[in-house]
Automatic annotation (TrEMBL):
<keyword id="KW-0862">Zinc</keyword>
<keyword id="KW-0479">Metal-binding</keyword>
<dbReference type="Pfam" id="PF21175">
    <property type="entry name" value="RecR_C"/>
</dbReference>
<dbReference type="Pfam" id="PF13662">
    <property type="entry name" value="Toprim_4"/>
</dbReference>
<dbReference type="InterPro" id="IPR034137">
    <property type="entry name" value="TOPRIM_RecR"/>
</dbReference>
<keyword id="KW-0234">DNA repair</keyword>
<dbReference type="InterPro" id="IPR015967">
    <property type="entry name" value="Rcmb_RecR_Znf"/>
</dbReference>
<dbReference type="InterPro" id="IPR006171">
    <property type="entry name" value="TOPRIM_dom"/>
</dbReference>
<feature type="domain" description="Toprim">
    <location>
        <begin position="91"/>
        <end position="186"/>
    </location>
</feature>
<comment type="similarity">
    <text>Belongs to the RecR family.</text>
</comment>
<comment type="function">
    <text>May play a role in DNA repair. It seems to be involved in an RecBC-independent recombinational process of DNA repair. It may act with RecF and RecO.</text>
</comment>
<dbReference type="InterPro" id="IPR000093">
    <property type="entry name" value="DNA_Rcmb_RecR"/>
</dbReference>
<dbReference type="Pfam" id="PF02132">
    <property type="entry name" value="RecR_ZnF"/>
</dbReference>
<keyword id="KW-0227">DNA damage</keyword>
<dbReference type="InterPro" id="IPR023627">
    <property type="entry name" value="Rcmb_RecR"/>
</dbReference>
<keyword id="KW-0863">Zinc-finger</keyword>
<keyword id="KW-0233">DNA recombination</keyword>
Amino acid sequence: MPFDPSDVSRGPVPNDPVEQLVVLLSRLPGLGRRSARRAALKMLQDPQRLMLPLAGALNAAAAAVRPCRVCGNLDTQDPCNVCRDPRRERGLVCVVEGVADLWALERGGAHRGLYHVLGGTLSALGGVGPEDLSIQPLVERVSAGEVEEVILALPATVEGATTGHYLADRLRPLQVPVTRLAQGVPMGGALDVLDDGTLAAALRARRPA
């Protein structure tokens, strides 16, 4: 039976090496079936320069990269380089949905504090509750007494707003200021696709949650 390309996200990987490569590439964000075929063809045409170095880098990253036990960032060290940096403002913690958002903020250089990765947002339809996110570890970090402000840098979506309100309620008894991003983040926008200037402006204009 020929391989059905209609569902490449969850189905079995085919035995043919070329088709394997296309299917696995198409599972990456932003790469559909057609884009994956183009990328696969490019690598196959020059495997020594493009494919083998990529395979080595993937193997090395898979073996070395791990989640940071403090903030949830991905790094080769645990705690990660951000958490270990003595120049960071230890009392300023920026809460983000995922590692992609953390990397976006770091790319712009607008935040000089620490981070906390939730691992998602609350979603009743998606079946994601508080116990599925890194919320209790955040509460414990704030309860330890070193945090002076929590910035909620969550996506401007219904789920992001719901999560922000929930976090503000959970943190309110700890009497630590909780702020959120203001101007510059459009409704429905994800942080990792915004430009650096927009992210910097949103951080500077944060307001109480």
